[in-house]
Automatic annotation (TrEMBL):
CDD domains: PBP2_AatB_like. PROSITE patterns: PROKAR_LIPOPROTEIN (PS51257). InterPro entries: Iontro_rcpt_C, Solute-binding_3/MltF_N. The lineage of its organism: Bacteria, Bacillati, Bacillota, Bacilli, Bacillales. It comes from the Bacteria. PANTHER family: ABC TRANSPORTER EXTRACELLULAR-BINDING PROTEIN YCKB-RELATED, MEMBRANE-BOUND LYTIC MUREIN TRANSGLYCOSYLASE F. This is Amino acid ABC transporter substrate-binding protein. Residues 36-257 form the Ionotropic glutamate receptor C-terminal domain. Keywords: Signal.
Length: 262
């Protein structure tokens, strides 16, 4: 009996310690004071976040997040996620931030907290350089590709073009959409201007932009609803990076100019 009683005491103590640690970890994360900041990304979203030839995750947003995390006294950990489930990943606590060309929209504001915008962007339409398509009206009866559940999809849904095209093919990422454009499975792709500018610089003579864009937009960083403490701490770090030139330096590295919104 004494042995059973002793085991019971040990078990009770262990449960208490585990519960205490769990509660402490949750409180730490909620205040933004945890030692690691888990950031959900699309690792095929060049030049903001993507894998280089060594399979390392690199990009403007990657460097930007690392610098912000350093100012916050923490370390950025990048977690590739299915972009279609980004808000679910955030609300479940599996990631702390959505940070990878995440467009600010009214619909998303209902699901997450946003920092102030840090980059301007636009949804544009790209086709092959050899194509005779040049304006949006030329896409009547054509097949359009885009990333599923992205702001490209939102822009197309709100455009008169949507009712004119033959079909819209959705992809898990922009790379797949552009690959299908190259082999003729789609006639054009709706994509972020920041992204296609990068690919056009890498694959000169492959793509061309339509004369008209679909929608201007701005990128922000998504924080879990209710976590105002983390939002404020992150925004403070971003503001400091604007003031001390850190943000401009990172932008020069990836874009050749200072594109960061002040």
């Amino acid at each position: 009996m004494k042995r059973l009683a002793a085991m019971a005491l040990v078990l009770t103590a262990a449960i208490s310690i585990f519960t205490g640690c769990s509660a402490g970890k949750e409180a730490s994360s909620a205040s933004g004071d945890n030692k690691k900041l888990v950031i959900g990304i699309d690792d095929k979203f060049a030049p903001l976040g993507f894998r280089d030839e060594k399979n390392d995750i690199v990009g403007f947003d990657i460097d930007y997040a690392k610098a912000a995390a350093e100012k916050m006294g923490t370390t950025a950990v990048f977690q590739p996620i299915d972009w279609k489930t980004k808000e679910s990943e955030l609300s479940s606590g599996r990631i702390d931030l959505i940070w990878n060309g995440y467009t600010i929209t009214d619909e998303r504001k209902e699901k997450v907290l946003f920092t102030k915008p840090y980059l301007k962007n636009a949804q544009v339409v790209v086709t092959l350089a050899k194509s005779n398509l040049s304006k949006l009206d030329d896409l009547t009866g054509k097949v359009i590709g885009l990333q599923s559940l992205s702001s490209a999809a939102d822009a197309l849904d709100e455009s008169p073009l949507k009712s004119k095209v033959k079909n819209v093919t959705e992809y898990a990422d922009n790379v797949l959409a552009l690959n299908d454009l190259k082999i003729g499975r789609v006639d054009a792709v709706v994509i972020d201007e920041v992204v296609i500018d990068y690919y056009m610089s890498k694959e000169k003579g492959t793509f061309k932009l339509m004369n008209e864009s679909l929608a201007p937009e701005e990128y922000g960083i998504g924080v879990k609803k209710g976590n105002e403490a983390l939002l404020q701490k992150l925004q403070k770090a971003l503001d400091e990076m604007n003031q001390d030139g850190t943000a401009a330096k990172i932008s020069q590295k990836w874009f050749g100019e200072d594109k960061v919104l002040k």
